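How it folds
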Amino acid sequence: MKDTFRGGVHPKQNKDPQRVSPLRVYDAKGEMVFPLSQHIGKPAKPVVAKNDEVLVGQLLAEADGFVSATVVSSCSGKVKAIEKRRTISGAMLECVVVENDGEYRKLDGFGERKDYSALTRDEIIGRIKAAGIVGLGGAGFPTHVKLMPKDPGAIKYIIANGAECEPYITCNDRLMREKPEDIVEGLRIILSLFPNAEGVIAIENNKPEAIEAMKKASSGEERIRVLPLKTKYPQGGERSLIKVIAGVDFPITALPADVGCIVDNVGTIYAVQRAVAFREPLFTHALTVCGDAVKEPANLIVRDGTSVSELIDACGGLKEGVSLKKAIAGGPMMGFAMSSLDVPVVKTTNAVTLLCEDGSEKAELEMTACLHCGRCTTVCPQGLLPQLMADAVYIGDLERYEKKLYGLECIACGSCTYICPAKRPLTQTFKQTKAEIMALKRAAGGKK
């Protein structure tokens, strides 16, 4: 078994200031805002109304369809409104707004460990669904759906993704170092659903303490092993991990389960352990506040719905004498720029990166014509031809982009943009093009 994949880049890690910061719980002071869409799939449907009193762990919105996820309150207080609010993605989405009373009174029935050894497969998945767990390392696919493939016996690998290859972000590193036994228990719970699967905990080798902690916690586990990986971006990408561990490629139209794999972030697996062993819904998660503009970079356990601006204040605010040029939800490679800091943290927010310099703005000033050097092709983990894809976009040949150059296979990792000496905005171009193609497909489908 290999320790890396084809292609990839080596951006500066910038992890040292925050990797030494232990996880600490931060309890929000201000109002809490809970978007009904914090996951892939259909938005949740509200089950509360204005002026309702709510408790920590209480259901605010129920899953509305098979691919959907519940939303629970992370605070106690009164429902102030159900209205559209600006969210971390920049979109105006329907949200439940709760006036936080600061008391954090809990709903009865969770938080105490209970024996789950006699639970059936359906009961375990039911607890995970009720908890509202989604993928915490990516786009937020509902976890209970991921754990219900057509043939559980065909799953060969449950991959615990602890790679954390994005620069700056260290919250999963700290989670593995501080909660290794809980993560292993969560992985063991998931493995109980798949009789023929092996659990592989994949961690980049720039996290030696996490590797050692996870090896110690999994010692004696017959179906679980730790796999150190080469430090390279995007090592933590789902397809990169599957290529390394299972040795297979698969088209973007297929699911990991189609090639015998299920990939879950270690934070998601920790949430599974809390849901099954403690009946605890997902209302907190680990997050890194980082970047060269923040005074005290830190790893926090945050409550969903907390304002990003409040989290920054909790980390000492901005450094004196610096100007914030860019705020990113996530890391600098695959994250997205925020238009406002007065937006709520959602389940999938794993980092807030605050920078003194806007790299894309600088690149735009330095951009030249394509040099035809081929570096973008060399680093693409999907084996695509970014130079030709960009040329197809510029002349408006979307059919060539999709059918001949397989442009929809792009995972928007940013490797091509990072390596391009001409400073061309390749990844941004491909994101926009994919959105345009998918919009055309939806429009064509609606006319049938």
Notes: Residues 184 and 220 are 11 Å apart (CA to CA).
